[in-house]
Write a structure and sequence with these properties.
The C terminus is likely disordered. α12 links the parallel β8 and β9. With 389 residues, the protein is an alpha/beta fold.
Length: 389
């Protein structure tokens, strides 16, 4: 029987993964296949020798990767991460979120994690809230409200730390004393966007800041798009609050759907271009949600149901069916004799009279001689002649 991996071999594999975060771009499925087939240490060794290149890349691409590998200094990156209170988490670690394995060969080489909580534990009960950077006041309000509601129910809010909806979602969760995770498209020691330096610092203190790129690395447009797959894979579902037709938030929702996660959207005005992408999502597989309770009903455990939705209860709603029929038999204008009311209600005169007196005690009708008429409060709100009473 063969012995399992030794502590030294595990550490070698781990250090190789640290180095490869500087070599392989996020989401590189070819590199992911190499890691699966031969392991990180062997990939790094091959990149440092003149041996035959690994399959799936051109000679030019292989030379580019070799150039990156030559400059990788994993010990230096680990020290830089430690300086900002960060750590490296990779597949096989107790903290590794197994939901990321759903990405297959496109899963991260490893993650740089800044903050005290366990990423794996937080990912188990998390929801992504994403949307437009240039959001409207409505979008910011809805993102913050939804995030606060999720946080109050014990859910972790995951977003991308960007301006607009992302920032509002993070602030909503933090403002409720809840948990939030910012997934960055740059090194976890960087603050991007710069205007969110204070917010990202606060998230690192109270929650988690996560990224695939090593300390000091910078974001690029492609890295933002690839970052979205992490947000989708980490969480149980993705909620989109405001997104135009061409939006990275919709890419997150598509990624969530492909991974079998829930995709949800908060509707906006039909005339708003910033909600057009959300509405398109809702016309497809997306589920319309308006608050945290509806989100939790979808992604939560059995029994976590949203409250029943209904309009305000008016006094008429509290009447029994028989009394409602008598009330409906009275004309909107003028008076009616008990016999006419009985015919209209489909009952006997004695029953109609008894119910009319009940309605009188409740303030719905008045008696004038031998006739009965509605009081002003009994008239429907939209009755055209209400002002004549």
């Amino acid at each position: 029987m063969s012995a399992g991996p030794t502590a030294s071999s595990r550490e070698e594999e781990r250090l190789a993964r640290v180095a490869l975060t500087r070599v392989l771009e996020p989401g590189d499925a070819v590199g992911g296949r190499w890691l699966r087939e031969v392991g990180a240490a062997e990939v790094l060794r091959r990149l440092g020798t003149e041996e035959e290149r690994l399959p799936g890349v051109s000679p030019r691409r292989w030379e580019g990767l070799r150039g990156r590998a030559a400059t990788a200094r994993p010990e230096r990156d680990l020290a830089a991460a430690e300086d900002v209170g960060a750590r490296f988490v990779c597949p096989g670690d107790a903290e590794w979120p197994v939901t990321l394995d759903d990405l297959g060969d496109a899963r991260p080489v490893g993650l740089w994690v800044r903050g005290r909580p366990s990423l794996r534990m937080w990912a188990l009960r998390s929801v992504a809230v994403v949307g437009a950077r240039a959001c409207t006041q409505y979008g910011a309000h809805m993102a913050a409200t939804v995030a606060a509601g999720l946080a109050e129910r014990g859910w972790v809010v995951v977003s991308g730390g960007a301006y607009g909806v992302d920032g509002a979602a993070h602030r909503g969760a933090l403002g409720s004393g809840g948990a939030t995770v910012a997934v960055l498209a740059c090194g976890i020691d960087q603050s991007y966007p710069r205007g969110h330096a204070e917010l990202i610092g606060r998230i690192a203190e109270q929650g988690l800041v996560v990224g695939e790129l090593p300390p000091g690395d910078h974001p690029t447009p492609s890295r933002f798009i690839l970052r979205n797959r992490l947000i989708a894979a980490l969480t149980r579902g993705t909620v989109v609050v405001e997104a135009a037709y061409r939006s990275g938030a919709l890419a997150t929702a598509r990624g969530a759907r492909e991974l079998g996660r829930f995709t949800m959207g908060v509707p906006g005005p039909a005339t708003s271009a910033l909600s057009a992408g959300v509405h398109e999502l809702l016309r497809g597989d997306g589920v319309l949600v308006t608050d945290a309770a509806e989100i939790v009903e979808l992604v939560g455990d059995m029994g976590e149901l949203a409250p029943a939705r209904r309009g305000p209860v008016v006094p008429r709603d509290l009447l029994t069916p028989g009394v409602q029929r008598v009330l409906a038999a009275l004309p909107a204008r003028g008076r009616a004799a008990p016999g006419d009311v009985a015919i209209g209600a489909g009952t006997t005169v004695d029953d109609a009279v008894g119910r009319l007196y009940e309605l009188q005690s409740l303030g719905f009708v008045e008696r004038h001689g031998d006739g009965w008429q509605l009081t002003r409060q009994a008239l429907p709100p939209d009755f055209a002649g209400a002002d004549e009473w």
